[in-house]
Amino acid sequence: MGASRHRRCAVLVFGRMLESQVAETTSTVVEPTRRDFLFIATGAAAAVGGATLVWPFIQSMTPDAATVAAGAPVEVDLAPITEGQIVKVFWRGKLIFIRNRTPAEIKAAEDVNVASLRDPQPDSARVKPGHNQWLIVYGNCTHLGCVPLGHQGAYEGWFCPCHGSVFDTSGRVRGGPAPINLPIPPYTFTSDTKIVIGQEATA
Amino acid sequence: MSQHPTTYVPKSAFGKWFESRLPIAGLIHSSFIAFPVPRNLNYFWTFGAILVFMLVSQIVTGVFLAMYYTPNASLAFQSVEHIMRDVNYGWLLRYLHANGASMFFVAVYIHIFRGLYYGSYKAPREILWILGVIIYGLMMATAFMGYVLPWGQMSFWGATVITNILAAIPVVGDTIQSLLWGGYSVGNPTLNRFFSIHYLLPFMIFGVVILHIWALHVPGQNNPTGVPIKSGKDAVPFTPYATIKDIFATVVFMIFFAWFVFYIPNYLGHADNYIPANPSVTPAHIVPEWYFLPFYAILRAIPDKLGGVIAMFASIAVLAFVPWLDTSRVRSTNYRPLYKQFFWILVADTLLLGWLGAKPPEGWYVIVSQIATAYYFIHFLIILPVLGFIERPLPLPNSILDSVMGVKGGAGLPTGANAEPQSKG
Predict the structure, then answer these.
(1) What is the ipTM of this complex?
(2) Are B59 and B174 contained in the same domain?
(3) Cβ–Cβ below 8 Å for A93 and B282
């Protein structure tokens, strides 16, 4: 009786030793505790919260409501613009050229091998049908935004004095560092002598 | 700083009480009084102190100008004229600030070329050098935004050109441009945020300058031989030797600065910037301030918008890699007969690019710009790595002391020459 109790006791001690050994070697893979969960959840909440806080600061730097409102479409009367004249107007703080082209300038713009251009676009795609005397383009060079000078350069279109870009009478880039043609702003003819800039025809 | 356990012992009871609570006096003592300085430094080593002076000068004059300046597109130009005409000594504050920017760049360019000549970027000073490149980048951003504030023609068109440069960055370019503009084009919101950032950046520069000085004080200063300090005989204590020399050089530099401020205050500016900003007319010839001209020439040399922008940023970024592009183990160019020639060709090439940046982008100016741009990159990416392998450097002196005394190969020193200056009292 006494011996068997002794043996049982020894087994128990050995079992405990084994248990503690196992616990030591596997301590890195112990079951996560509630403390671990709270630690990670708190950290994640702080990270997401901190990142979210950046949003209003960045958004404050985007165009504000007043600036957007001031960017509404503008109406321009073309009647006073004589043949050959270039008029500058502003829409959204951006300069826009309105050019009343002479027949010679229209012919020069149309008689171009489109495939040879850096940014191939036929003249017909740059004016409104039936209004091909009117060329309406943004007035900032597509290189770095300078204002090109009208009626200058090899093609008598525009020449940019800053870095030497050359544009033809259709506002297409023909030389210099500008990568693309002068872009066409959204506009629509409301009558033969009136346009609204900032509004595309709904048709 | 942490490398040099202080020998500072406070004398007064209050000093002891204070030092045990905030050991700032000990920090200053070990960094700027007892700090060992190579005894052979030449005057090119005073430009660090001159640059600290210029940064403080710009911050002080800028804080006062901000009291009278109005960052509003319809009032900014008038407020600058108000400073010039009405504010007492406003003309002085503005001319000090505007010319101070140029003087800051004069000093920083000498400082950078000093580092390139004497190999001050080589191990263990790589982090020190990269911090310097970061300071230089922050300086350029600050100077650009400051030039926009008077809202003259060059301000407006400079801002337009530079913000359009950023729009060339793929994917995020348009977003960055819109965040800088705060509208559909350069306008009042742009001016407001440029003023805010122009006020912020100098303090960021100040922070990086502290890191720069900290990184300098770990290995100590380089010197014209490039041989490190080996014994106390190679060095002198910072105070009084370096302190007095730095003060003297700063005063001489102030005379140069004052000559611009009082005699030719608009020489480095552009007459066009005395015309209020007009978004419908570009000045006939847009030219950035002189200190940006080499990079402007590189921008224009590449006949492709994105390519030009990449080349321009790369021409600055390449500096950060110089510690690893230079494969030579000899620091000082004094002992590198081949590299010495290429160094001066690089200086000439940079000056040529600067001259070309002010010329119209037409005819042979474009071709020369392209050649000079190509050479600039060839220098850093090909010549610098290759020279380290093929060049046979001259024999280095055993120590700074030997170099100072003109000793070659261990000949005897004149009596007394090897006394340690620190111990002279």
Answers:
(1) 0.71
(2) yes
(3) no
Q: What is the mean pLDDT of residues B249-272?
A: 96
Write the DSSP assignment of A12-72 as a string of letters.
HHHHHHHHHHHHHHTGGGPPP-HHHHHHHHHHHHHHHHHHHHHHHHHHHTS--HHHHHTTS
Would B331 be classed as within a structural domain?
Answer: yes
Nearest CA distance, A145 vs chain B (angstrom): 6
Examine the pLDDT at B414 and tell me if it is beyond 60.
no
Task: Give the residue carrying structure tokens 């050359």.
Answer: A166
Cα B75 to Cα B64: distance, rounded to the nearest angstrom? 18
Contact B125, B215 (CB under 8 A): yes
Does residue B27 lie in a domain region? yes
B316-334 per-position pLDDT tens digit? 999 999 999 999 999 999 9
> Which of the four pLDDT bands, split at 50, 70 and 90, describes residue A25?
low
User: Which residues have a Cβ under 8 Å from the Cβ of B29 and sit 6 or more positions away?
Assistant: B6, B7, B8
Does residue B83 sit at the A interface (CB-CB below 8 Å)? no
* CB-based contact B103:B54 (threshold 8 Å): yes
Nearest to B156 by CA among B11, B282, B263, B56: B282
From chain B residues 134-193, the ones with a CB under 8 A of any chain A CB are: 157, 160-161, 163-165, 178-179, 181-187, 189, 193
Verify whether residue A163 is a known catalytic residue: yes
* Interface probe, candidates A67, A74, A158, A162, chain B, greatest B C-beta count within 10 A: A162
Question: Counting Cβ atoms within 10 Å, is residue A34 exposed (0-12), middle (13-18) or buried (19+)?
Answer: exposed
Does one domain contain both B62 and B15?
A: no
Q: Which residues of A touch B286 (CB under 8 A)?
A: 146, 161-162
Q: Which of B280, B265, B288 is nearest to B146 (CA)?
A: B288
In this predicted structure, the answer to whether residue A26 has a pLDDT above a threshold of 90 is no
Query: Within this chain, do residues B360 and B245 fall inside the same structural domain, yes or no?
Result: no
pTM: 0.85
The residue out of B286, B314, B335 marking a domain boundary is: B286
Q: Where are the alpha helices (DSSP H) in B86-181?
A: 90-117, 126-148, 153-167, 173-181
- Domain span at residue B5 reads 1-34
Cross-chain CB nearest to A63 (options B183, B186, B282): B183
Task: Say if residue B207 is in the same domain as residue B350.
Answer: no
Q: Rounded mean pLDDT of chain B?
A: 92
> Cβ separation of B179 and A93 shorter than 8 Å?
no
- Does residue B308 have a pLDDT over 70? yes
Flag whether pLDDT at B415 surpasses 50: no
The residue-averaged pLDDT of B148-159 equals: 95
The residue-averaged pLDDT of A76-105 equals 93
CATH 2.102.10.10 holds for A68-197: yes
Q: Check: CB of residue B61 under 8 Å from CB of residue B69.
A: no
The number of distinct structural domains making up chain B is 3
Percent of chain B with pLDDT over 90: 82
Cβ neighbours around B287 below 10 Å, total: 18
- Work out the burial of residue B288: count CB atoms within 10 Å of its CB; fewer than 13 is exposed, 13-18 middle, 19 or more buried: buried
Q: What is the mean pLDDT of residues A106-128?
A: 92
List chain A domain ranges: 2-60, 68-197
Lowest mean pLDDT of A6-15, B52-61, B271-280, B392-401, name the range. A6-15
Q: Is the pLDDT of residue B109 over 80?
A: yes
Q: Which residues are A86's β-sheet partners?
A: A99
Residues B238 and B137 in one domain: yes
